[in-house]
Design brief:
InterPro entries: SAM_Ribosomal_mS41. This is Small ribosomal subunit protein mS41 SAM domain-containing protein. Pfam families: SAM_Ribosomal_mS41. By secondary structure, the chain is mainly α. The chain contains seven helices and no strands. 53% of the residues lie in helices and 0% in strands. The relative contact order is 0.12.
Length: 130
């Protein structure tokens, strides 16, 4: 039984090594995407964000109130220090930490910013009370 498995592996390896992209039976992997995209257009994160903002104009207060969980308390601080939502979406945790945002709130902001960039989540269209 064991010999059959070994012989099966050796024949598979020899057939794989005949492939031009492989080196001695090991497939060649790369982090670069292939140049051929196909018939579908590849959307970048900024195109997705622009499409979402066409439907509802979202600022930092609307974003934070959409997340909820007490993040509305940081809206004034983030608006004065960061400015607009586009900058908040690419802000890293160290900058939020320097602004005095607690760890739990930083994690929520970064989690929902990532979802928002991907187009998987968006805040409700309710206006924020001033």
């Amino acid at each position: 039984m064991a010999w059959r498995q070994i012989l099966g592996w050796s024949t598979r390896l020899s057939s794989v090594s005949a492939h031009p992209n492989s080196v001695s039976g090991i497939a060649k992997f790369s982090s670069k995407s292939s140049p051929y995209i196909g018939p579908f257009m590849k959307l970048t994160k900024w195109v997705v964000i622009d499409l979402i903002e066409i439907a509802v104009k979202v600022g930092i207060p609307e974003f934070l109130s959409g997340v909820g969980k007490g993040l509305e308390n940081h809206a004034e601080k983030l608006e004065s220090e960061i400015g607009d939502l586009q900058k908040l979406l690419v802000t890293r945790t160290i900058k939020l930490k320097r602004l005095g945002i607690p760890c739990k709130d930083r994690k929520l902001i970064l989690k929902y910013a990532h979802k928002y960039r991907l187009g998987l989540w968006r805040p409700r269209a309710e206006p924020v009370k001033s």
